[in-house]
Design brief:
The chain is of the alpha+beta class and 723 residues long. The strands form seven sheets. A seven-stranded mixed beta sheet has the order 1-8-10-5-6-7-2. Strands 14, 19, 24, 25, 26 and 27 form a six-stranded mixed beta sheet that branches. The protein has a five-stranded mixed beta sheet with strand order 20-28-23-21-22. β26 and β27 form a beta hairpin.
């Protein structure tokens, strides 16, 4: 049959790879149930199509069989779709769920059909059927009253060899792996509504046919076609109602299954959480936790096994205090729950605060241990404690400190969280030679610090000495260092005071709210201390020509804003290189206007196009240029036309020390605490002082530190000016 358009219903030739049973039964599978993806041998579109084989299809095939009989056409099956003699005569179609769901056909075998099967001439069956639209997803089997009586044939060329029940005869280019598509899928609410609407339509059609049949009988007439159509509609409605009932039951079971699974998952997560809290599972072992939740969700009985898991005594220890060197104690903390981590942090902080003398080295060790607890156990779970009321945090910490009248835990926890931002907000502090320490110092004390510079290279001497031995390495390269005397001339802090009436009038964490800005202000003081040294007087290594090393005299590197570009960085690089400044750890501070001007250099557009560096456009952050890492420094001082500073790490040394506890000097005890807080990544330590003035009725929170800065290697710095 010629295909007129994609929606024209035509017969589709298929071959089912189910061995035809013994002819004595007279019943075999016509088509398997469910959605079938097939590539038809005839009547297709040259590509796989989907066909829905359901109970409604039984009614369509049965109606077509009855219509053929009314036209005195007996439906039959042939041999290999050749249109010759009949292998069997079709008696009826029906739906069966066993041995596999699908449409089955009852037939009377011809002698030739029996012989073809018993003689093993043919072993498979292929149906012929019609669909409403071959492009639909899926197409549906329909009755065609004008169809030819040939409804299938015995064949030997199955396309599917690995599944029951259908193999379609391969068309040219068909893929051999076509298979049914999820025959047991759950209908969507829209599909179920459409099925219900169809059943109502069938009921209406059956009522009309019954009325027509009754009218004919009243006249003494009998219309076989009306009767056969009525029986077909009734069979279709019966099958469709059964399908509706099954689909509704499946949907209900699916909904109940989801509710049960959700409840099982909640119970499983609670069991795993209990196991983590008693240290039966490591806090960070999320892979094991996820696997246990999945297992217990599928099998709720497994929750009993999780609850029976014994906690590891080592992991479960909240704080293990052991003797350390020099009579000091050492606290060890392991993977624990968030609540226990807060408790460990609080207890270590309390031990720290109880040591009033900063000169005690154990104070610094405890600060480092508290930082490690925070970094490993609390930092990744900030959402579990950040919004916790201070009362709950204190209860979780569960430590005894008679002087803790200010929420010691809260202050230290928040400051521990924001301390790493010290260098993040001011990256210059991480790119200079720094000596941050938790050791105590004395105000105005001068200390000597050495910075390493490039040593001289020596040559091996192979000549023999007086004893006949090779001279070898006769010249030693002494460690090249620059001494810098640094005076701790700045004793700085950020005191924040609230009166008792203010504290009592709000539940806000007033001191915590100020912590971030307080530390930012302290970082700004550090930076101002450093940038004040970036002057031509301090860095004059390039002020005169020093042939042959530096052929150009640079008292400063002067360049107008309109002319500043990447080429200028290249010239500064040349000066540094010829004066043997190490190529690593170079940076460049630029005020915001010069930084913006540099970012407009056309060479950077080319760089972005070549490297696809999104930070240039999305964040306005420049990459390393000619070995220098540019930094936008709006804080850079603008006096004497200064607009920037090119430097090596050793150009300036910054040192910080902790101040002595003032209560030790006056010999007085105050209602408060003095705690050392350390960031292990940067090495920065600060002293947190918290106390209450009982006379004037106020509370004070203060971070303190002493610092000094000095010029290091003068070759490693060059001031950039606008003129």
């Amino acid at each position: 049959m010629k295909l007129l358009n994609p929606t024209t219903p035509v017969a589709i030739l298929c071959r089912a790879a189910v061995a035809v049973p013994d002819v004595a039964t007279g019943v075999f599978m016509f088509m398997p149930g469910g959605e079938q993806t097939i590539t038809p041998f005839g009547g297709g579109i040259g590509a796989p199509i989907k066909v829905l084989v359901d109970r409604a299809a039984v009614g369509e095939l049965e109606k077509q069989r009855v219509a053929l009989a009314a036209r005195n056409k007996s439906p039959f099956c042939d041999f290999n779709h050749e249109g010759g003699g009949a292998s069997c005569w079709i008696k009826s179609f029906e739906w069966q769920d066993s041995p596999a769901p699908g449409i089955y056909v009852r037939v009377d075998w011809t002698d030739e059909g029996k012989q073809a099967i018993s003689g093993k001439k043919f072993r498979y069956f292929s149906p012929v059927f019609h669909v409403d639209n071959k492009l639909a997803d899926p197409a549906r089997i329909v009755c065609r009253e004008w169809a030819a009586p040939n409804m299938g044939g015995l064949v030997n060329d199955p396309a599917f060899h690995n599944i029951l029940p259908l193999w379609a005869k391969n068309a040219a280019g068909a893929h051999p792996s076509n298979q049914p598509t999820n025959p047991n899928k759950i209908m969507t609410p829209e599909e179920l509504a459409a099925l219900q609407a169809k059943n109502r339509q069938l009921e209406s059609e059956i009522a009309a046919l019954r009325a027509k049949e009754a009218a004919l009988k009243a006249k003494g007439e009998n219309d076989a076609l009306v009767a056969s159509e009525l029986r077909a509609k009734e069979a279709e409605l019966k099958a469709s109602r059964a399908e509706e009932e099954i689909v509704s039951l499946k949907a209900k079971n699916e909904e109940q299954g989801k509710a049960i699974k959700a409840r099982n998952k909640t119970d499983a997560e609670a069991a795993v959480k209990r196991a983590v809290e008693r240290a039966a599972i490591a806090t960070k072992d999320t892979q094991t936790q996820t696997a246990l939740v999945a297992r217990a969700t599928d099998d709720p009985a497994f929750i009993a096994i999780i609850d029976a898991m014994q906690g590891n005594p080592t992991l479960g220890t909240r704080l293990t205090v052991q003797p350390g060197n020099n009579g000091m104690t050492r606290a060890e903390v392991t993977a624990i729950s968030c609540k226990d981590a807060i408790k460990e942090f609080g207890r270590i902080v309390a031990l720290n605060a109880a040591i009033r003398d900063p000169r005690n080295p154990e104070k610094g060790q405890l600060a480092l241990q508290a930082a490690r607890v925070f970094s490993s156990e609390l930092k990744a779970r900030e959402n579990e404690w950040l919004d916790m009321p201070i009362e709950d945090a204190l209860k979780a910490a569960d430590y005894s400190d008679p002087n803790n009248n200010l929420g010691l835990l809260s202050g230290t926890l928040v400051l521990q969280r924001i301390l790493p931002l010290f260098q993040y907000e001011y990256p210059i502090l991480s790119q200079l030679a720094t000596d941050f320490s938790d050791a105590p110092g004395l105000w105005n004390q001068t200390e000597n610090t050495r910075i390493v510079v490039t040593p001289a290279v020596q040559t091996f001497d192979p000549t023999a000495d007086a004893t006949g031995r090779p001279k070898g390495w006769t010249t030693v390269s002494p460690a090249q260092t620059v001494n810098a005397n640094i005076t701790l001339d700045s004793y700085v802090g950020v005191p924040i005071v609230f009166g008792n009436s203010t504290l009592a009038a709000t539940i806000r964490r007033l001191f915590d709210e100020q912590s971030g800005q307080a530390l930012y202000a302290l970082g700004g003081y550090f930076v101002n201390k450093v940038t004040a040294l970036m002057t031509p007087a301090n860095f004059n290594a390039y002020a005169v020509v020093s042939a042959p090393k530096v052929p150009i005299a640079y008292a400063t590197y002067a360049k107008a804003l309109a002319d500043f570009s990447v080429a200028d960085i290249n010239r500064i690089k040349a000066a540094f290189n010829t004066n043997e400044v190490p190529v690593q750890d170079r940076g460049m501070l630029l005020d915001s206007q010069y930084y913006a001007r540099l970012s407009e250099d056309p060479n950077l557009a080319l760089f972005y196009a070549a490297t696809k560096a999104p930070e240039i456009v999305g964040e306005g952050r420049l990459p390393k240029l000619r070995g220098f890492m540019p930094q936008d420094a709006p804080y850079f001082p603008s006096d004497n036309n200064r607009v920037g500073f090119a430097y090596h790490k050793a150009a300036i040394i910054l040192k910080s020390r902790l101040p002595q506890d003032f209560t030790q000097a006056v010999g007085a005890m105050i209602p408060g605490s003095v705690t050392t807080i350390t960031d292990p990544a940067t090495g920065i330590s600060v002293l947190l002082v918290q106390y209450v003035n009982l006379t004037n009725n106020y509370a004070e929170w203060r971070i303190e530190v002493m610092l000094g800065a000095a010029v290091g290697d003068k070759r490693g710095g060059m001031v950039i000016t606008s003129a």
